[in-house]
Amino acid sequence: MKGTRLIQLICILLLSGPLGWQNAFAAETKSTHNDSYSRSIIISAPSEKVWEILGNPVGLPDWIPGIKQTVYASDIKKGVGTVREITLDDGLLIEEHFVAWKEKEYVSYIMVRGFPLRGYFATMAMQPLDEGAVLFTWSVYYTTQEMTDTEFEKFSTNLRVFFEGTLTNLKKILEN
């Protein structure tokens, strides 16, 4: 890998003329990135109890650490067309719009404001397994604004850590 970078630097120097050295040693270039992530857990709780959480668009502070407040930003309170504004503990404001909703099965939403993203689509779904357990799945696809590979890796890692912690917290809350 280091040899490849050296060859790239030499090529830039040779092909770019007198200012090539500036480009050769410039900071990591920025570009857009795409990623998806999906995580499932089994929650030992009745499906009605899981849906109470999943089907409440403004109940996020009850189960997601780091959220100060969630409020409705639309007249629609449940289903497609519901809009919520989420305020994180650090003051960041996020806006999400629900674009799919099947009662007692799943909700899908897009984020239109908040993180350094050009697009964000997520689905939280539940599937009853037996009388007292549910398979809960949170899936997300996102595309970023321009950032370096290093910034993207850090962002994606933090997002995955967030999902893991949040799902662990949800399981703990619902199983008590």
What does this structure look like?
This protein is α+β, with helices and mostly antiparallel strands. The protein folds into two domains: 1-27; 31-175, Alpha-D-Glucose-1,6-Bisphosphate, Chain A, domain 4. It is built from four helices and seven strands, in the order ααβαββββββα. It has helices at residues 2-15, 20-24, 47-54, 149-175; strands spanning 34-43, 67-72, 83-88, 93-102, 106-113, 117-130, 133-144. A seven-stranded antiparallel β-sheet has the order 1-7-6-5-4-3-2, covered by helices on one side. A hairpin with a 4-residue loop joins β3 (83-88) and β4. Residues 9-16 and 20-24 have low confidence and may be disordered.
CATH class of the largest domain: Alpha Beta
- Total number of beta strands: 7
What is the annotated CATH architecture of the largest domain? 2-Layer Sandwich
The name CATH uses for the topology of the largest domain is Alpha-D-Glucose-1,6-Bisphosphate, Chain A, domain 4
How many whole angstroms does the radius of gyration measure?
21 Å
Tertiary shape = globular
Q: Which blocks of ≥5 consecutive residues have pLDDT under 50? A: 9-16, 20-24
Strand and helix order = HHEHEEEEEEH
